[in-house]
């Protein structure tokens, strides 16, 4: 488990614009692009 958590941490550091996490249902490490928050206009 510690190797898995270390790999997730490495991927998070290499790809800061992605959410990287473990999907327990699929037994996979998953990455998805983070949603950008837009500044309020006005």
Topology:
Layout: H1 2-14, E1 18-23, E2 28-33
Antiparallel strand pairs: 1-2
Walk me through the structure.
By secondary structure, this protein is of the alpha+beta class. The chain has one domain (about 1-35). It has one helix spanning about 1-15, and strands at about 20-25, 30-35. A two-stranded antiparallel sheet has the order 1-2. The N and C termini lie far apart (about 50 Å). The model has no long low-confidence stretch (mean pLDDT about 85).
Radius of gyration, taken over Cα atoms and rounded to an integer in Å: 14 Å
Main sheet attributes: strand count, strand direction, barrel closure: 2 strands, antiparallel
- Helix percent reads 25-40%
User: Strands of the biggest beta sheet: in what spatial order?
Assistant: 1-2
Helix segment tally: 1
Percent of sequence in beta strands = 25-35%
- Tally the structural domains: 1
Mean pLDDT: 87
Seen as an oligomer or otherwise, the chain set is single chain
- Strand element count: 2
**In terms of structural class, how would the helical and strand content be classed?**
alpha+beta
N-to-C series of helices and strands: HEE
| Broad shape | elongated
Uncertain stretches of 5 or more adjacent residues? none
Distance between the termini: 48 Å
């Amino acid at each position: 488990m510690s190797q898995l958590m270390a790999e997730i941490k490495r991927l998070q550091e290499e790809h800061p614009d992605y959410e990287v996490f473990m999907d327990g249902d699929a037994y996979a490490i998953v990455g998805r692009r983070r949603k950008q928050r837009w500044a309020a206009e006005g």
